[in-house]
Amino acid sequence: MTINPGHSRNPGSDGPGSAELDAALRQFAQRPQILVALDFDGVLAPFVRDPDAAAPMPSSVAAVHRLSRAGVHIAYISGRPLADLRSRAEAPAGAVFVGSHGAEVAMNGDDGADADAVELSTDEADRLAALNSRLASALSRTPNTWLESKPAGVVVHTRGADEDEAARALEQAREAAADFPTVKVTKGHHVLEFALRHSNKGEGLSRVRSSLRPEAVLFAGDDTTDEDAFAILRPEDVGIKVGPGETAARYRVRDPQQVSDVLEQLAELVESRDG
């Protein structure tokens, strides 16, 4: 993966209203068939201590629905399990969902009938149960941390821990998982994920693109796991990094509020094109 340090300026320096991003959005909006793909946490939904309390910003929900009504393809690409992502996204009809970092895909979000569910073999299920037990034991004495079970993995959350607690929890988790060498370990914002299935958001986005065949894609993400999706974007696409950190994305906004501003701006551009 190529990280472009030329686009790792201060957060918000490329935000809504900047000449570069405005020009990119105007050019993107002129294409008849476009796809807007969005991560959930930290992009549509502000971060909260309890992941079960996360909800998308109402202004972003409204803008996404405007884009959908104007004929724009909408996709949600997240590390959250597919069912959880679908239940909280407040998505328009026909949206596509990619959950568990690309391991779960539903090309028709209305009913999920065509969703690719994760089906573990007996051996995988046994290894996942053993890994979960090992991690739970390792973190039992570390306060303000918890485990999240996923269809093919386990996630260690440290958002409520202080810096020392979080570092200790991550070290203990890695040591506990050392006997599971085939498990993929992915570090994100205040999380460490252990997955039996090796998939990523870039693979998920590629699958959506191959199915919908848009002329261009806009993808917005905030986490290190989103870099796999930024890395596969083409010159005609628009990649938007939310928040600080080095990135392969061409543009940057500061926070979910600025994501909402971008979506509203794009909706206006598409509506004016079609009007």
From TrEMBL:
Its EC number is 3.1.3.12. SUPFAM superfamilies: HAD-like. Keywords: Hydrolase, Magnesium, Metal-binding. It catalyses: alpha,alpha-trehalose 6-phosphate + H2O = alpha,alpha-trehalose + phosphate. The keyword Transport does not apply. InterPro entries: HAD-like_sf, HAD-SF_hydro_IIB, HAD_sf, OTSB-like, Trehalose_PPase. Belongs to the trehalose phosphatase family. PANTHER family: TREHALOSE 6-PHOSPHATE PHOSPHATASE (PTHR43768). This is Trehalose 6-phosphate phosphatase. It comes from Saxibacter everestensis. The gene is otsB.
